[in-house]
Amino acid sequence: MKTAGHGIELARSGRWATTIAAALMAAGCGGGSDDAPATTTAAAVSTEKPVEQPILTMPTSTYTGMYAQAFQRINEARIAAGVSALKQSVELDRAAQAHAEYLAYHNLTGHYQSSLDALFTGTNHVDRALAQKYKNTVTVEVVSTAARDYSGANHVDLHLNSVYHLLGALLPNANEIGIGVSWPSAIGQVSLSITTGTTDSRLMPVKYPIVWPADKAINTARQFVPAIERPNPLPDIATNFSVTVGSPVMYCRRLDLKAPLTVTSAKLVDRLTQAPQPVYVLRHGTASVSGAIRADVLLDPNPADISKQCIFLIPKTPLDVRRTYDVTVTSIEQGVSSETTWAFVTGD
After folding, report:
1. Are 194 and 237 in a shared domain?
2. Where are the beta strands (DSSP E) in 42-185?
3. CB distance 179 to 75 below 8 Å
4. Start and end of every SCP domain (predicted)?
5. How many domains does the chain contain in total?
6. CA triplet 313, 156, 287: central angle to 5 degrees?
């Protein structure tokens, strides 16, 4: 994988939320004297619509070329991870395309636009979606910039082999997508902008926890250059592009829980040698990671609400070629300890 000269950026929306709404029913009984007939009040009928179900199969779209490649890859990943696939939204398409063209025109990367600039369509990704009459809830925007020979799938793989962008790409309550691709900029790079939204912010994944690489995944990435990602998840360790570590492994408990995440065990083991791999464990400031874990536990330097229930295991060195790795994470939820195990196989 090429690393020099490209980057990925993530914008998080303050409008993102995952909630569980219970249909409340009220019933009451009333009575007068002993000989009075008993009366009951009818159960109140909830007017709230049922929670939408995740999309479990590959949606159709009108995309072609790089757009179709990106659409296929991100949905393959989401389905494998057990979260809803994303259906095409023409409004989000227009917003994402406008931003990709803005970035190329000004030879920039990132999420914000200046109203003084040519091709301005909105200060941030939410504004740009609203300007295109998007009526649902905007979730996140992820942007990648790479050499012109990168495919749409390669652009998505940059996000899937990261920390913050990985969670953004797999956000469980998203179910709509817009994709924009720029022409080559003055220095020959192409920007690919993805904006996601949801028709129901209560949307849940097929199962929790959400892990990546997905269980039984093959040909997974082996190495990661933290300085490529903006913001950098390891700024004190990976101070420049020459520092390479292993590809991040993600574990996310139920994202809708308010109780802080407590992790009592986390390990990554090479199945061939049975050797635990030296890792950094990146945690949110509200999460608790047991001191008994044999790893360097680091406080997330760029905390966000959507990562409160997640930890990332980042191997200190690149993973071996075509090797099976077993992951075990034990966490406590409402006083009950739960162990999750899964495995993946690296590529070349």
Report:
1. no
2. 87-88, 137-147, 176-181
3. no
4. 72-182
5. 2
6. 30
As separate numbers, helices (DSSP H) first and strands (DSSP E) second, the chain gives: 5, 21
pLDDT for the residue numbered 335: 83
Instruction: Give me the pLDDT at residue 258, please.
Output: 82
In angstroms, rounded to a whole number, what is the distance separating the alpha carbons of residues 185 and 101?
A: 9
Judgement on whether residues 165 and 84 belong to the same structural domain of the protein: yes
Which residue range is the domain that position 202 belongs to? 52-207
Question: DSSP string spanning 16-50?
Answer: ------------EEE--STTSPPEEEPPPPP-SPP
Do 165 and 236 reside in the same domain of the chain?
no
Domain edge (last residue) among 207, 235, 254: 207
This model's pTM is above 0.90: no
- Whether 165 is in a domain gets the answer yes
Instruction: Identify whether residues 301 and 342 lie together within a single domain.
Output: yes
Structure-token match 């990562």, residue found = 307
**278 and 245 Cβ atoms separated by less than 8 Å:** no
Residue 54 tokens, joined: 């995740």
Alpha helices in 9-131 (DSSP H): 65-81, 90-106, 125-131
pLDDT at 47: 59
**Backbone dihedral angles phi then psi of residue 227, each to the nearest 5 degrees:** -65, -15
Predicted pLDDT of residue 256:
79
Q: Which residues of the chain have pLDDT under 50?
A: 1-6, 10-46
